[in-house]
Amino acid sequence: MRLTETQVDAYASDGFVVVPGLFSSAEVDTLSSALPELIEAHREGHILEEGSGAVRSVMGGQDRVAIWERFVRHPRLVHAAAQLLADPASLYQFKVNTKEGFKGAEWSWHQDFIFWHEEDGMAYPLALTAAVFLDDVLEFNGPLLMWRGTHRHGSLAARVEPGTDWRANAQAKLKYSLDETTISRIAERHELVSLKGSRGTAVLFHCNLVHGSMPNMTPYRRAIAFCTYTSVNNRFDAVERPRPQFVADCRGRAVEALADDCLLD
Ligand SMILES: O=C(O)CCC(=O)C(=O)O
Known about the structure:
- By secondary structure, the chain is of the alpha+beta class.
- 23% of the residues lie in helices and 23% in strands.
- It is built from 7 helices and 13 strands.
- It has helices at 5-14, 25-33, 35-41, 66-72, 75-85, 113-120, 180-189, and strands at 16-19, 46-48, 55-59, 89-97, 107-110, 127-133, 144-147, 159-160, 176-177, 192-195, 202-206, 211-213, 224-231.
- The strands form 3 sheets. Strands 1-11-6-13-4-3-2 form a 7-stranded antiparallel β-sheet. The protein has a 4-stranded antiparallel β-sheet with strand order 5-12-7-10, with helices on one face.
- Strand 2 (46-48) and strand 3 form a beta hairpin.
- The chain is globular and about 50 Å long.
- The two termini are 19 Å apart.
- The structure holds 2-oxoglutaric acid.
- Residues 97, 107, 112, 142, 144, 211, 213, 224, 226 line the site of 2-oxoglutaric acid.
């Protein structure tokens, strides 16, 4: 699949592009029904919600469940990522954030690149994430909130929470988050967008886009699968405490895309 010129332009100016119906209902059914298997098969990748102990995120584990391995190599994702990166794409991170009904907590305001730069030595912001909705994302169940066009500011100064455990990077209070003064300044110049859509919708967003999400106060789960791709020409510098490869794959190997019907056969 190739994105249209309009979609490429939207990504360049807004820092994200929404592609409704990128995956069909049958494809999402397949993925959704394989989610419990992924969660069960890859316990070491769990991040739990504070308090309830519900699974907040499962990081990696795609190599343990065939359908998820096919998903990260799906040509609609891999080719779109390569097109926007203008380079062959390497899979750097895969995760599913489940945001369970009544239990899913917020994700504070942040940019992604600073995590990858500080924790994994990613040299350049040549990375994007494809977020694929596994559930209908409503205005009520904790949609992704994005400040349009903020990727153009580069890395903004983040507040740093102490801690070395990789799980702390993904708690409601994130390790590198943006403070109220920074967000208030952003609000003067940028529009805030809430990314709602039916299951199967995908959003591709730049690694310096400011984003977050609110808690899920409803009974409706909001699971989203995130595949982060980086350019094979990006560089990773050595870091003191490398994170597990299922959290950050820094090998820079080009992903070989599969056939378009790989989720259905
Ligand atoms: O799942 C969410 O609501 C937000 C996830 C997010 O911001 C991230 O993984 O960078």
